[in-house]
Amino acid sequence: MRTVGVTSRGIRAPIIKRGDDLCEIVVNSVLNASKHEGFELKDRDVIGITESIVARSQGNYATLDDIASDIKAKFGEDAVVGLILPILSRNRFSMILKGISMGVKKLYIQLSYPSDEVGNPLVSWDIIDDHGINPYTDVFTAEEFKKKLGDVKHPFTGVDYIAFYEEICGGKAEIILANDAVEILKYTKNVINADIHTRFRTQRRLIKAGAEKVLGLHELMNAPVNGSGYHPDYGLLGSNLATDTSIKLFPRDCQELVTKIAAVMKEKTGKNIEVMVYGDGAFKDPVGGIWELADPVVSPGCTPGLIGTPNEIKMKYIADNELHHLSGEDAAHAMREVIRKKSDNLINNMASQGTTPRQLTDLLGSLCDLTSGSGDKGTPIILVQGYFDNYAD
């Protein structure tokens, strides 16, 4: 009888550079790890590849000048633009903001509060409540906000994002604090909405309220500018700081890559290996309240076997109800029989008690992201085994 369920291994890889054959590197890295660490590859193992090395191998970068040029082309020279609902992040947004500010005459920045879209706190709810502020209706200039609350700093980074974003823009920016996207139209009718997961609704609301031009971050750098990188669907969304003058964009053509890796793995091992590219995992930090998903999607590309949601039942519910009179090996045997017969009336009646219907790629992407981390582990490739097994196997 098997004694181990799901395992997730970080696979070390070389430092990936532009032009590297990522398919060859991924395949060789996994096969070498299997050989040297003594584990066997099996059907429906999952290889996860972090989006960062995919974009790096593609050379999918853009400079601040590229961003500024794109802004000027789409809003005109010397435009007055409103930038609304950006996340509070040095890594994710500071260079985007700098590039945008270089392309406009004047920039009005509307920050949400007490936190941004993914939970980065500008100020705590306790402080908001103590001062009798209603963030759903109250609007402040940066000066009014600081006069009322004092200096506000991120609890983890210690950064005053109001001052930081003002400094980045070199005197071109005026900051307001409001949660209603339409508030920006009091300052300008030309808007860049920087929200990620609510971007399409925000654009609809702005257009309905009288905006003349609204572009999301996904519509900036969505085509090459002077030979730059780009992303046709996500533009600047999912980008990260690369250097002090450039950003790394979200990777393109991920479906082609995962299909090729799966085919080569089949050729070399005879196994049907699932493959996915993953970015941020879709999980929330219970202490800081930060939702990790600053990328537009968890997985921009996966093999067909990873599409859909898990077909599972809650063992604990069955153990406490249908099998409450059994224990030990009798309970284990009965549970395996229940799992094998998922189509029985027993399971159909339990449908409402099933697991949360999250997408497989979101679940696996979160597992991969937690395994690889974002620091110095050096494991941008993850091998997940046994994910599609169950207690009856």
Description:
With 393 residues, the chain is of the alpha/beta class. The protein has three domains: 7-59 and 252-311 and 356-385, 60s Ribosomal Protein L30, Chain: A (2-Layer Sandwich); 61-248, Rossmann fold (3-Layer(aba) Sandwich), CATH 3.40.50; 315-353, no CATH class. The chain is 33% helix and 15% strand. It has 13 helices and 14 strands. The chain has helices at residues 22-37, 51-58, 64-75, 94-102, 125-130, 142-149, 161-168, 199-208, 254-269, 315-320, 328-340, 345-349, 360-372; strands at residues 7-11, 46-50, 61-63, 80-84, 106-111, 140-141, 173-177, 190-193, 213-216, 240-243, 246-248, 274-278, 301-302, 381-385. The chain has a six-stranded mixed beta sheet, with helices on both faces. The protein has a five-stranded mixed beta sheet with strand order 1-14-2-12-13, sandwiched between helices. Helix 3 (64-75) crosses helix 4 (94-102). It is globular and about 70 Å long.
